[in-house]
Amino acid sequence: MVRSSRGEANPGMWRREAGTAVRATVALPERAVASMAIIAGFRIPRVPTEWAPHSHALHELVWVRGGTLTSRVGDRVFTVSEGHGLWMPAGMVHGGRATAGAEFHDAFFAPDRTPFAFAEPKTIAMTPLLESLLAHLSRADLDAAARARAESVVFDVLRPAERQFALQLPGDPRIDAIAEALLEDPADGRSLEQWARSLGISDRTITRAFRHATGLSFAQWRQMLRAHRALALLSEGFDVMSVSEVLGYAQPSSFIAAFRRVMGTTPGAFFDPAGGAPPDVRNPVSGVRAS
Fold first, then answer.
1. What average pLDDT does the segment 135-162 reach?
2. Do 99 and 67 contact (CB within 8 A), yes or no?
3. Three-state secondary structure readout of 40-56
4. In percent, how much of the chain has pLDDT > 90?
5. Cβ 250 vs Cβ 242: under 8 Å
6. Pairing relation of β-strands 84-88 and 59-65?
7. Mean pLDDT in residue range 130-142
8. 281 vs 128, higher pLDDT
9. What would the DSSP string read from start to end of 168-236?
10. Quick one: pLDDT at residue 249?
11. Nearest CA to 175 among 228, 224, 212, 133?
12. For a 10 Å CB count at each end of the chain, is N or C smaller?
């Protein structure tokens, strides 16, 4: 069975697991010097680790192996699983959480020496070439010429993933209680009608509010949220049956079908390294509200 995620509440993110270490910020590597355009490194958190909302003077690229990273940026929640990274522009406030035991990699990019700029957070395709180059740049014994050559290739191959997998939070006081309840407990199976009675509004109001704020229906949004949570649980090694139970599905086949609708493939195929890169996500949610 999946261990309980019950713990301290943290609005806009999953409920914090007991034993989570909370950090003020992701520290820049000690080797950071003005002559480097890219500073890369990695660590392995022994316990679930959360970073409070913070920002950096440098652009940041983070990715994980053997786990997931969840990041809250404004009214969006990004989930990064193996094979993808998350680019955070310099100066943008964000918080994050990494699963215990995951290899947490980061690379910082000097804005004045980076020949491109993403104004918004971007999911990045972490190809084997890009990962190898950044691992190479984490070495302390590179001379300036070797570092410059590797950095120039990174700039050539670093590209956003074709689709961006982000969960848009409503930001609407009429339905925010629904979002927070489902973040706390994705298995909450209350229907649209039950939520309407609980909040004292009509089910049509809820439907319209979700469409306007997220571009998705209530059912689609809940399915997207559960897919985000499934990525974290599956990447930690939990089996499909346990994950389907913790997410509130009556049987594993229902969970697999829902996961396929969002992710375009089954959980097994998504996490199978021999199967190649995961496909693009269907119905991705951008930061732009629907009109």
1. 94
2. yes
3. EEEECCCCCEEEEEECC
4. 60
5. no
6. antiparallel
7. 94
8. 128
9. E----TTTHHHHHHHHH-TT----HHHHHHHHTS-HHHHHHHHHHHHSS-HHHHHHHHHHHHHHHHHHT
10. 95
11. 212
12. C
DSSP state of 157: H
Residue 177: name the closest of 164, 159, 160, 194 by CA: 194
Q: What are phi and psi of 273, to 5 degrees?
A: -60, -30
Strands 49-54 and 21-23, sheet pairing: parallel
DSSP states along 232-269: HHHHTT--HHHHHHHTT-SSHHHHHHHHHHHHSS-HHH
Which pair of tokens denotes residue 256?
Answer: 């697999």
**Strand pairing of 94-98 and 49-54?**
antiparallel
**Letter for the amino acid at 243?**
V
- Nearest 5°: CA angle at 285, between 279 and 6? 90
DSSP code, position 135:
H
What is the pTM (predicted TM-score) of this model? Answer: 0.80
pLDDT of residue 34 exceeding 90:
no
Q: In which residue are the tokens 């319209």 written?
A: 208
- Within 10 A of 183 (CB to CB), how many other CB atoms are there? 22
* pLDDT one-digit tens code per residue, 50-62: 888 999 999 999 9
Distance of CA 120 to the CA centre of its chain: 14
* Residue 21 pLDDT grade (very low, low, confident, very high; cuts 50, 70, 90): confident
